[in-house]
Amino acid sequence: MSNPILTLNHVTRTFAVKRQTIKAVDDVSLAIREGEIVCLVGESGCGKTTTGKMIAGVLPVSSGEILFRNQNIANLRGDDRKQYRLGVQMIHQDPYASLNPTHTIADIIAAPLRHHGFTRGDAATRERVRELLARVDLTPPDDYLEKFPHQLSGGQRQRVSIARALTVAPSFIIADEAVSMVDVSIRISLLNTLTKLKDAMGLAVLFITHDLALAKYFAWEGRIGVMYLGRLVELAPARDLVERPQHPYTQVLLSAIPEADPEVTRRKKHIELRSMDVPSLLRLPTGCAFHPRCPQFIGAVCEQNVPGLLEANGARVACHLVNRKT
Amino acid sequence: MPPTLSVQNLSIEYAARRGKVRAIRNVSFDVARGDALALIGESGSGKTTLGLGVVQLLPSTAKITQGNALYHRDNKTIDALTLKGKALREFRWKECAMVFQSALNSLNPVLRIADQFGDTARAHNYLQGRALKERAEHLLTLVRLDPERVWKSFPHELSGGMRQRVLIALGLLLEPQLLILDEPTTALDILTQRNIMDVLKELRGKLDFSLIFISHDLSLAAELADRVATVYAGKIVEFADVTTTFKTPAHPYTIGLINAVPTLQGAKEDLTSIPGSPPDLIELPSGCKFHPRCPRADARCKRDEPELEEIASGHRVACWNWRTT
């Protein structure tokens, strides 16, 4: 399982805003292996969703390339393109908006099965729908077949979205804030279902979230990438990232998050930023984009040069200070 | 000293096409002077309704069917739920201010921050002119804003975190004794959230007011609250000081919530969700409303609803089987 299923090479995406261009994603390189979990975390506007959309093929890249099984997705035609479109599936954030309210659950899941010829005949399709519902723990499936989305809770709808993504036997799932709209008490069971499916079907998952604790829980066996203003600033195995964060931004983030334990959270040391102002993407700071806020700012090099994402202690970190030490 | 706010037997219903939504059912609790109480629970548990009820800002479909909210200041006690007209206007903001969930939309977009403060002061016959500006600058500094930068700005010129801090400062303008914050950090980024939390902690040290904050985020309660009320299906099911709530919770719902939240400290823990989903508030289950999701439910739980009982000093729980924890 060491072959990358998906590779991003120097991917950049710009948008035109009021006669200016902003770089939503800037020079991101990343390889995700078959069956691997990678979480992308960062604050709003850091480019994590744009990255997900480019991988899903719903947004073209501005420069750089995205490879699916070593083929550039921009050049795929015919059957190859179909393989990619089916192989990479997306689960959206809002389960209230992503299911057609006038279709029953059975219809929603049967449509892609029929359309792409995964099943033949109504009986076989229905059987497969039942199987998929059971897979996402909507049991007994017969209770759900004839229901409409509005009759289900947010968590159940999100399970339907997962089942729908699975209809076309994908090998790569992009889950963009897939549990953030679901009640706290049932988030974990949804993540556990995803983990179970990933193990059973050998899926690779790109999980996009703003919640580092959730990322740690879900990506425990995988990796976490931290994005800041369009750039990937640290990419490391989940445990290392949480226990020994190297990039100053990752350290600040981890220190800022409150914990659900009064003793721990009140004793926690918070790293102070040099400035609270979040720079606008329209006027990105020169050099390292984090330098105006960075508590470990070391001078001119941070202001002038953009740090590369370089190997450091088993991780990759884009920071002049870290890169100088290693 | 009597508590700043004492809510007694409060029930609130909403009229819906399918029937009555029983959003708050016979809820009683006290907020002591200077105390911070967190109301935690999932969406739809009635937390916000409770907050809106105290300041009588419920929508017209809602009805307070019973209860009092006794507010105490300077040896006088009033029932906030019976106030009308001028008395109600004076109670709101001067005695009890609320910062709403959609902080980003609760400032008037066409008024500069200076005018938002001015309007509020004028409507309540508070300080004017120079004195007002000084008071506002003091508050803005307390919430770590630069008054120079903010005073002449329009809301759209400020970031989400700055607007939230302006609202907190504005809430405290008339020196209320009680501040209600509805999801004060939801929809804000992690670093902004940290900043708001630090501001709130600092304010509590410097000014004398009680705080009720409503949140679905347990870690926020762990950090800011003195006491925590767990709300489920319109009822407080557990009430305790913050350490007890997180270290030795007794209600299966509180325990379930805590076990469902991942932490950053330590290795990956075994987390479990609470099975099922929150109940329909129109057709509530019989007996204890949590019984369909509860691992400890028995025949009695299906039949009778438990009321809060004191199981240790200051620790109240509404569960028949709390001893079997």
Explain this structure.
- The complex is a heterodimer of chains A (326) and B (325).
- Chain A is α/β, with parallel strands linked by helices.
- Chain A folds into 2 domains: 4-243, P-loop containing nucleotide triphosphate hydrolases (Rossmann fold), CATH 3.40.50.300; 245-326, no CATH class.
- Chain A has helices spanning 48-56, 78-87, 105-115, 122-135, 154-166, 184-201, 212-218, 238-243, 248-256, 262-267, 300-304, 320-325; strands at residues 4-17, 20-33, 37-41, 63-68, 71-72, 88-91, 172-176, 204-209, 223-228, 231-237, 310-312, 315-317.
- Chain A has an 8-stranded mixed beta sheet, sandwiched between helices.
- In chain A, helix 3 packs across helix 4 (122-135).
- The relative contact order of chain A is 0.13.
- Chain B is of the alpha/beta class.
- Chain B is built from 11 helices and 12 strands.
- In chain B, the strands form 2 sheets. An 8-stranded mixed beta sheet of chain B has the order 6-7-8-3-9-10-12-11, with helices on both faces.
- In chain B, helix 7 links the parallel strand 7 and strand 8.
- In chain B, helix 3 crosses helix 4 (129-142) and helix 6 packs parallel to helix 7.
- Chain B is globular.
- The two termini of chain B are 35 Å apart.
- The relative contact order of chain B is 0.14.
- The chains are: A alpha/beta (326), B alpha/beta (325).
- Chain A binds chain B through residues 43-44, 153, 155-156, 183-190, 192, 210, 212-214, 216-217, 220, 239, 242, 252-254, 256-266, 270, 273, 276-278, and chain B through 42-43, 144, 159, 161, 189-195, 197-198, 216-220, 222-223, 242-243, 246-247, 256-258, 260-265, 267-269, 271-275, 277-278.
